[in-house]
Design goal:
The chain contains eight helices and five strands; from the N terminus they run αβββαααβαβααα.
Length: 210
């Protein structure tokens, strides 16, 4: 850990609301990560809400399917017809979900200090942090690994040197990425399925870069 990371970690630990959350800064289990995904009522990170979270642990080259988390979250504003068409979660489905704070508490204990893996993870983290910051005082402090960035680096290295100039356009769509890596597609826009697929891509890209 570099000096800047050490200072940031120290500042974050001082912002924690009580010692209950100190485990987030413990050394993570060796060669373990958590792949996660969220389904939301829309794409506005300031006003839309999370309605489901899926997460699964990765150990080495294995997805620990028995160590997974799938949560439904009850939104305060309900769900629109447009969002239902995407994730197929209706108002009656999420009405029995957990309050956001309870879901975040379960998620944090599931993740622990493990680094996070995801596809376009920045969006999911932004949505999660809105619910997590009031609970613990900070956003998710774990290292974050973006699958699309790993895939970009993998494809970039395959280009001839004459093409490795400037911003190279590479198709980063999830379906393209999965097909190119010869990985099976599950039904998309299901939080747990998306988390598992991101985990598969992460493992395959690590193997290819080894």
């Amino acid at each position: 850990m570099g000096l800047i990371d050490t200072l940031r970690s120290g500042w974050q630990q001082r912002q924690l609301k009580g010692t209950e959350w100190a485990f987030l800064f413990e050394p993570p289990p060796k060669d373990e990560w958590v792949s996660l995904d969220c389904e939301t009522t829309g794409l506005n990170t300031r006003t839309d809400e999370i309605i489901s979270v899926g997460a699964v642990k990765i150990r080495g080259q294995r997805i620990l399917s028995s160590e997974r988390l799938e949560l439904l979250i009850r939104p305060e504003k309900g769900v629109s017809a447009e969002s239902i068409r995407v994730h197929r979660l209706r108002a009656q489905d999420v009405q029995a979900g957990l309050p956001a704070a309870d879901a975040m508490r379960q998620l944090l204990h599931f993740i622990g200090a493990r680094p996070l893996v995801g596809y376009y993870l920045e969006f999911d983290v932004a949505m999660l942090n809105r619910a997590i910051k009031p609970l613990i005082g900070i956003g998710l402090p774990q290292p974050k690994i973006e699958v699309s960035a790993l895939y970009y680096d993998h494809k970039f290295k395959q280009l001839p040197p004459s093409h490795q100039q400037g911003n190279v356009e590479i198709d980063l769509r999830f379906a393209t990425l999965m097909a190119d890596l010869a990985l099976p597609m599950r039904d998309a826009h299901d939080a747990l399925n998306d988390a598992v697929m991101a985990a598969m891509a992460f493992i395959k890209l690590r193997q290819l870069s080894a």
